[in-house]
């Protein structure tokens, strides 16, 4: 599964680096290195929305750092298990 996290200036200010760090930790914790690939992308056109743009495949979500772990467990884990 590809997870793409926006690292454009707006999402960077909203905490994209924190979300990447949290996702990296969770990929390691759940031993998903062979199943999940984290990618960065510059502006994905969601700048005016709250949160950082995170794509699971073609599906887009808005994620804030304080909810990143919960998002990963609710949205990512069921899709790769």
Description:
With 81 residues, this protein is an alpha+beta fold. The chain has a single domain (2-76), classed as Glutaredoxin (3-Layer(aba) Sandwich), CATH 3.40.30.10. Helices cover 40% and strands 25% of the residues. It is built from three helices and four strands, in the order βααβββα. The chain has helices at residues 9-13, 16-29, 68-80; strands at 2-6, 37-41, 52-56, 59-63. A four-stranded mixed β-sheet has the order 2-1-3-4. A hairpin with a 2-residue loop joins β3 (52-56) and β4. The chain is globular. The model has no long low-confidence stretch (mean pLDDT 94).
Give the topology:
Elements: E1 2-6, H1 9-13, H2 16-29, E2 37-41, E3 52-56, E4 59-63, H3 68-80
Parallel strand pairs: 1-2
Antiparallel strand pairs: 1-3, 3-4
Task: Describe the structure in brief.
This protein has 81 residues and is α+β, with helices and mostly antiparallel strands.
* Helix percentage: 25-40%
User: Can you say what the CATH homologous superfamily is?
Assistant: Glutaredoxin
**Helix and strand string, N-terminal first?**
EHHEEEH
Summed over residues and divided by their number, the pLDDT gives a mean of: 94
CATH architecture: 3-Layer(aba) Sandwich
Q: How big a fraction of the residues is strand?
A: 15-25%
Helix/strand class: alpha+beta
Question: End-to-end span in angstroms?
Answer: 11 Å
The CATH class, by name, is Alpha Beta
Rg, alpha carbons = 12 Å
Stated plainly, the CATH topology is called Glutaredoxin
Distinct helical segment count: 3
Number of domains: 1
Uncertain segments: none
Strand order of the largest sheet: 2-1-3-4
Shape: globular
Query: Would you count the extended β strands for me?
Result: 4
**Biggest beta sheet attributes:** 4 strands, mixed
